[in-house]
Amino acid sequence: MPSSAQRARQYWLMKSEPDEASIDDLAREGTLPWTGVRNYQARNFMRDQMRIGDGVLFYHSSCPEPGIAGLAEVCSQPYPDSTQFDPKSDYYDSASKQDNPRWSLVDVSFVRKSTLIPLQALREHDVLADMVVLRRGNRLSITPVTPAEWRYITEKLMK
Known about the structure:
alpha+beta, ph1033 like fold, two-stranded antiparallel ribbon, 27% strand
């Protein structure tokens, strides 16, 4: 089994509501913790599979025009999401304990902003037909992206 240093770079699509954390916020801050994920499969992607250096398609969701707004990169190992312990947070989880946290996060760093690539535009390219984000009923906030999908989006669609 290859060590993490030998592991091939992986790619992810990570959704954020722009009024909570936008690509412009990430550009201004440089790095943001990816807080508030409360889906076990998405959490597992961060906790078990993401590594420093993995590529991120930064996706604006729950807004008038959802779509890919730019690129980011995973820049930390996974660690407990502190919002799970804060009763004032929208992401508070009373069942999660400090000595046994339920929710994890990673930090992401800004790479570049792009012209928005709307969801409908992604659907227009046959090579992207199998993207997880385009699957019917998919609601995950974090989904894997294949190297071929990453290359196509970053080389052909991003401006």
